[in-house]
Amino acid sequence: MTERIESIAELRKKLARVKAGGQTIGFVPTMGALHKGHLSLVRLAKKEADFVVVSIFVNPIQFGPKEDYQRYPRNLDKDIALLQELKTDLVFAPSENEMYQTGFTTHINMEGPALGMCGKTRPGHFSGVATVVAKLFNIVQPKIAVFGQKDLQQIAVLKRMVIDLNFDTEIIMAPIIRESDGLAMSSRNEYLTPPERKKALALNRALFIAESAWLEGERDVTKLLNAAAGVLAETPDVHVEYLVAVNPETMQELTGKHEHIAIAIAARVGSTRLIDNLIMG
Ligand code: AMP
């Protein structure tokens, strides 16, 4: 039976007992509206730790004022049923008040990997992510925490935070889970109308075109990006926010020839903002 806890104090008490019994804790932070991508993270956490905690919290401070915080899909009962099927040990689903008490003022500000890409187009986003994950790490104190490659820049940011602030938690990256036609699974895919859903395939097609050039031996970053850009440009109503080649660990933008790169895309399809990436080499 998956236990559901909403209070930080109660969660701390419960996890103290789990640790006293010698079990290791694995943690999967999410914003809910769970899909198979999230569930793959839970499965990986179960392999890596004895007791798995999944948090479900739509974190207000990582959304910009004009973003989709209000309309973000919320479906706690369905999420808990899915987690129950996986025999997840515990779901932590705090209220906004429980996480951010009146007078909340402390934020983590990061440079380095947080500056480019989504850091540029979503000011304050990674500060909100780092702050909530630091809070959750302090509350749960997990041995390992699993995050998806889907949010590659988020992983780079959080790995840096763990080093810089001496968290005793190992971050593990899980691969991107895709729909059968290649679209990266995302809670935000729910926003897409059927015609938009078709156009959204331009993101993964662009990445796969670049990957086939890579597999044929192309190492020039500009040529790989041009191949991807061609696919995006030929799809109407796909508005590219960024298309970059970066070092997969530092998020530093690359030019010239490289043996280990990530190509990352953010684009709007209608009013929906989607991201995707591929690591090569
Ligand atoms: P979110 O609920 O969108 O904040 O995502 C929670 C976690 O699930 C993050 O670590 C994401 O990177 C991960 N995730 C989201 N979509 C996918 C996917 N398609 N494949 C693998 N992991 C994913």
Report a brief summary of the structure.
Helix 6 (125-140) packs across helix 7 (152-164). This protein has ten helices and nine strands. It has helices spanning 8-20, 36-48, 76-85, 96-99, 118-121, 125-140, 152-164, 194-199, 201-215, 221-233, and strands spanning 3-5, 25-30, 51-56, 90-92, 144-148, 170-174, 238-246, 261-269, 272-280.
Write the layout of secondary structure elements.
Layout (H helix, E strand, L loop, with lengths): L2 E3 L2 H13 L4 E6 L5 H13 L2 E6 L19 H10 L4 E3 L3 H4 L18 H4 L3 H16 L3 E5 L3 H13 L5 E5 L19 H6 L1 H15 L5 H13 L4 E9 L14 E9 L2 E9 L1
Parallel strand pairs: 1-4, 2-3, 2-5, 3-4, 5-6
Antiparallel strand pairs: 7-8, 8-9
The structure holds adenosine monophosphate.
Keywords:
6-stranded parallel beta sheet, 281 residues, binds adenosine monophosphate, alpha/beta, 10 helices, 9 strands, 3-stranded antiparallel beta sheet
Strand order of the largest sheet: 1-4-3-2-5-6
List the total number of helices: 10
Bound molecules: adenosine monophosphate
Reported for the largest beta sheet, the result is:
6 strands, parallel
In helices, the fraction of residues equals: 25-40%
Strand content: 15-25%
Tally of strands: 9
Average pLDDT, rounded to a whole number, is 98
Envelope shape: globular
What is the rounded Rg? 19 Å
Element-level helix/strand string: EHEHEHEHHHEHEHHHEEE
Regarding quaternary structure, what we see is single chain
The low-pLDDT segments are none
Distance between the termini: 42 Å
Classify the secondary structure makeup into a structural class. alpha/beta
